[in-house]
Amino acid sequence: MCGIVGGIATRDLTPVLLEGLRRLEYRGYDSAGIAALDAAGAVNRARSTGKVAELEQRLARQPLTGQLGIAHTRWATHGKASEQNAHPHCSDRLAIVHNGIIENHHPLRLQLQELGYVFTSETDTEVVAHLLAHHYGRQQNMLSALRCTLAELRGAFALGIIHQDEPDTLYCARMGSPLVIGVGSGEHYIGSDPLALLQVTDRFIYLDEGEHARLTRDDCQIWSKQNQPVQHAVQQYQHAALSMEKGEYQHFMLKEIFEQPAAIADTLDGLLADDHVLTAALGPGAESQLPLIRNIHIVACGTSYHAGMVARYWIEEQTGLPCQVEVASEYRYRQVCVPEGTLLIAISQSGETADTLAALRYAREQQYLGTLAICNVPGSSLVREADWRLLTHAGPEIGVASTKAFTTQLTALLWLTTALAQVRERAPEIIAANVRALRSLPARISDTLELAPAIAELAKQFQAKHHALFLGRGPHYPIAMEGALKLKEISYIHAEAYAAGELKHGPLALVDDDMPVVSVAPSDSLLEKLKSNLQEVRARGGQLINFACERAALDDGEGITHIAMPWVYETVSPILYTIPLQLLSYHVALIKGTDVDKPRNLAKSVTVE
Ligand code: G6P
Q1: Are 426 and 515 in the same domain?
Q2: Does the UniProt entry include the keyword Cytoplasm (predicted)?
Q3: Are 356 and 300 spatial neighbours (Cβ–Cβ below 8 Å)?
């Protein structure tokens, strides 16, 4: 997805801006550009398709220097990947970079064309450049022009702006897309991700939604959406939090469990508006196809397969589209029937899993409407070979047992479900509720992570056990499967998951006081059914461990342990209930002394069949 870097300093910023773009490359992009104010006071610009290295080669031939500058990596949404569409975009004497999507770009473009503005790109961003120039022309004041412009924009954006008339000032604004201000000594920077700026500073101001700022070398003024001055503390960056080091954590797996709030917020970056989702984020080709989808097939392996299973419940309930989910190793070897208008979704953290890749290649020979990769690695084979892509932004996942990759896949899949519901004109209140729930997820997950000490205590009950059963119903059945898989993978305890209604059809025979039974019990429409299943376990002396909503009112008593989960909107609860199961398997493995990050016999990326 797109990336922004910018700065105002007393040194030439081109090397800093280029290094910033290199640090954002991992997000995925298809063109890059830079604009800076030279010593004579003119804005110069260089752009190129392809890699940042190609932009660098161009700058080696035609150098560009300046102490005030902005730079960008673009991932095409409005308009193909081309030099004309690459950022920065210019109008009159100003240049801007933009992340996000301007939803009302079309009417604004028509108004500006009537006023005589000529467009040189297909982007929504150029609309913002001309609108700023238009307001500046009338007011001769950049701050007022910026405010008038922001008041007219709908959608999600982060903006960086420079103007020839203000050679010592960098402007920026954010709404729905992240933007941080980097504080240096006699210099200020902006970046869509602090990682881009760690080369020059580790002190940051995090802008809130709707805020805009004016930065000079020595000063940083910030205003709210209502144009009221606001003060934010400068925060020291916690290096361990996002780097490839374990930092304060004993294992990568634990660190990655705790990174989930940030990973989910990153995955949602630029995808949500106030009460609806921004479908343009899927890219020009995909957006126009969404209304044509009549049916969905999902293929994946391992943990990614569980994400697909949860998505089936969401998709069928919220969009009415039939959805089928299959492990890729089975799908690739059978004759599939593909009804007209079917979308194939391949889910993979690595994008290199041999069976998932083979399934995608097989699907491309069938009559699918199109293929979509949901993936965490932008340059992976899966992303390159699918027609469309929806990237998760979990960051590198080192622990073999997948954690943050799974919850970001679920986040992306719920977003996709909402996008499909939106194009199919499903009830707007459901769409708005999904958006609210997605937005609140990082905070709810942070709350849930506070259960870690209680779960570490609970894990002691598993010390001498050899088997465990996991139960769930509805979309929490695949979450129970994921919980059982985690326990198997890293603690080597045999664990099975059952849809709780199946208990009587076999597994109940295994239940005795040596068999812990873990239940996933959110406060949903199936709770009463689940309660009956749990009584069946207790009646046979089974030890029950319930991860239950604080409002669920489950029976207490001997042999029953409850971990109370915060209440959440029903649709997102599968994402939330994953967290305690991850923590449980981690703490059991810790007690058993296994190699948590590299469990025996397993590989992170299975590139052979
Ligand atoms: C391996 C990993 C799992 C992962 C599965 C699918 O088995 O150990 O954690 O879920 O591959 O990987 P993918 O990269 O396609 O999601």
Answers
A1: no
A2: yes
A3: yes
227, 311: one domain? no
Active-site residue 486, yes or no?
no
Per-residue pLDDT tens digits for 451-509 = 999 999 999 999 899 999 999 999 999 999 999 999 999 999 999 999 998 988 988 88
Report CA 157 to chain centroid distance, whole Å: 16
Q: How far is the CA of 373 from the centre of ligand 1 (A)?
A: 15
305 CA to centre of ligand 1 in angstroms: 9
pLDDT at 241: 47
Which tokens is 372 given? 């979509």
**Known active-site residue 604:** yes
Cα(271)–Cα(281) distance, integer angstroms: 6
- Which residue's CA is the nearest one to ligand 1's atom 8? 604
Same domain flag for 7 and 31 = yes
Mutate to test the pocket of ligand 1, among 604, 607, 608, 609 (most ligand atoms within 8 A of CB): 604
- Per 3-state DSSP, what percentage of the chain is helix, strand, and coil (rounded to 5)? 40, 25, 35
**Which uninterrupted H or E stretch holds 149?**
helix 142-152
**Ligand 1 centroid to residue 308 C-alpha, Å:** 13
Query: Which residues have a Cβ under 8 Å from the Cβ of 243 and sit 6 or more positions away?
Result: none
- 440 and 466 inside one domain: no
609 falls within a domain: no
**What is the atom index within ligand 1 of the atom nearest the CA of 400?**
8
Do residues 237 and 256 both lie within one domain?
no
Could you tell me the residue range of the domain that residue 263 belongs to?
252-447
Question: In angstroms, what CA-CA distances link 94 with 36, 71, 132, 138, 280?
Answer: 10, 14, 8, 15, 26
Out of 80, 225, 246, 604, pick the active-site residue: 604
Q: Which of 2, 90, 375, 549 is catalytic?
A: 2
How large is the average pLDDT for residues 174-179? 84
CATH, residue 15: 3.60.20.10
Q: What is the CATH number of the domain that holds 288?
A: 3.40.50.10490
Q: Which atom of ligand 1 is nearest to the CA of 382?
A: 15
CA of 399 to the centre of ligand 1 (A): 11
Say if 608 falls within a structural domain.
no
| Dist. CA 385 → ligand 1 center (Å) | 19
Residue list, ligand 1 pocket, CB within 6 Å: 301-304, 348-350, 353, 356, 400, 402, 602, 604-606
HSE-CB at 490 with a 13 A cutoff on CA atoms is 30
Query: Over the chain, what is the mean pLDDT?
Result: 92
Domain count, the chain: 3
pTM across the whole model: 0.78
pLDDT at 435 over 90: yes
